[in-house]
Amino acid sequence: MSLAFFGLFIIASAKEKIEDEMIQSVRLKSLQTAVFIQVIFILGFSLFDEWRAEGLVNLPMPAILVGIIFVGIYLFVFYYQLYFKNNEE
Predict the structure, then answer these.
(1) Is the pLDDT of residue 56 over 50?
(2) Where do transmembrane segments lie in this chain (predicted)?
(3) CB neighbours of 49 closer than 8 A, spacing ≥ 6?
Protein backbone atom coordinates (compact mmCIF):
# COMPACT_ATOMS: atom_id res chain seq x y z
CA MET A 1 0.00 0.00 0.00
CA SER A 2 2.81 2.40 0.79
CA LEU A 3 4.32 1.76 -2.61
CA ALA A 4 0.99 2.48 -4.30
CA PHE A 5 0.63 5.73 -2.36
CA PHE A 6 4.18 6.77 -3.21
CA GLY A 7 3.63 6.00 -6.90
CA LEU A 8 0.36 7.96 -7.03
CA PHE A 9 2.02 10.87 -5.24
CA ILE A 10 4.83 10.93 -7.83
CA ILE A 11 2.27 10.95 -10.65
CA ALA A 12 0.25 13.72 -8.98
CA SER A 13 3.28 15.94 -8.46
CA ALA A 14 4.65 15.51 -12.00
CA LYS A 15 4.55 18.56 -14.23
CA GLU A 16 2.73 18.63 -17.53
CA LYS A 17 4.61 19.43 -20.74
CA ILE A 18 2.96 22.85 -20.86
CA GLU A 19 2.37 24.26 -17.38
CA ASP A 20 0.20 27.35 -17.87
CA GLU A 21 -2.64 29.14 -16.07
CA MET A 22 -5.24 26.67 -17.36
CA ILE A 23 -3.33 23.74 -15.89
CA GLN A 24 -2.95 25.57 -12.58
CA SER A 25 -6.68 26.31 -12.54
CA VAL A 26 -7.51 22.65 -13.25
CA ARG A 27 -5.10 21.54 -10.51
CA LEU A 28 -6.76 23.86 -7.99
CA LYS A 29 -10.27 22.72 -8.91
CA SER A 30 -9.17 19.08 -8.75
CA LEU A 31 -7.62 19.59 -5.33
CA GLN A 32 -10.75 21.31 -4.03
CA THR A 33 -12.95 18.52 -5.38
CA ALA A 34 -10.71 15.82 -3.92
CA VAL A 35 -10.74 17.46 -0.48
CA PHE A 36 -14.54 17.82 -0.59
CA ILE A 37 -15.09 14.18 -1.63
CA GLN A 38 -12.56 12.95 0.94
CA VAL A 39 -14.34 14.80 3.77
CA ILE A 40 -17.68 13.35 2.67
CA PHE A 41 -16.12 9.88 2.45
CA ILE A 42 -14.60 10.07 5.94
CA LEU A 43 -17.81 11.47 7.46
CA GLY A 44 -19.86 8.82 5.71
CA PHE A 45 -17.56 6.08 6.94
CA SER A 46 -17.75 7.46 10.49
CA LEU A 47 -21.54 7.67 10.37
CA PHE A 48 -21.75 4.14 9.01
CA ASP A 49 -19.49 2.99 11.83
CA GLU A 50 -21.74 4.66 14.41
CA TRP A 51 -24.86 3.32 12.75
CA ARG A 52 -23.61 -0.27 12.83
CA ALA A 53 -22.38 0.02 16.44
CA GLU A 54 -21.86 -3.73 16.50
CA GLY A 55 -18.10 -3.57 16.60
CA LEU A 56 -17.69 -5.09 13.15
CA VAL A 57 -16.60 -1.86 11.52
CA ASN A 58 -14.91 -0.30 14.53
CA LEU A 59 -11.50 -0.56 12.94
CA PRO A 60 -10.13 2.89 12.06
CA MET A 61 -9.42 3.50 8.41
CA PRO A 62 -5.73 3.12 7.80
CA ALA A 63 -4.14 6.47 7.06
CA ILE A 64 -2.40 5.10 3.99
CA LEU A 65 -5.77 4.04 2.54
CA VAL A 66 -7.12 7.55 3.10
CA GLY A 67 -4.07 8.95 1.32
CA ILE A 68 -4.44 6.57 -1.62
CA ILE A 69 -8.12 7.44 -1.99
CA PHE A 70 -7.36 11.17 -1.81
CA VAL A 71 -4.59 11.11 -4.40
CA GLY A 72 -6.61 8.75 -6.60
CA ILE A 73 -9.60 11.10 -6.56
CA TYR A 74 -7.33 14.06 -7.28
CA LEU A 75 -5.73 12.34 -10.27
CA PHE A 76 -9.06 11.14 -11.65
CA VAL A 77 -10.64 14.59 -11.45
CA PHE A 78 -7.50 16.32 -12.79
CA TYR A 79 -7.14 14.17 -15.89
CA TYR A 80 -10.92 14.11 -16.45
CA GLN A 81 -11.09 17.92 -16.45
CA LEU A 82 -7.89 18.24 -18.46
CA TYR A 83 -9.21 15.86 -21.11
CA PHE A 84 -12.44 17.80 -21.57
CA LYS A 85 -10.69 21.20 -21.49
CA ASN A 86 -8.37 20.07 -24.30
CA ASN A 87 -11.26 18.69 -26.36
CA GLU A 88 -13.18 21.97 -26.10
CA GLU A 89 -10.37 23.93 -27.79
Answers:
(1) no
(2) 30-48, 60-82
(3) 57, 58
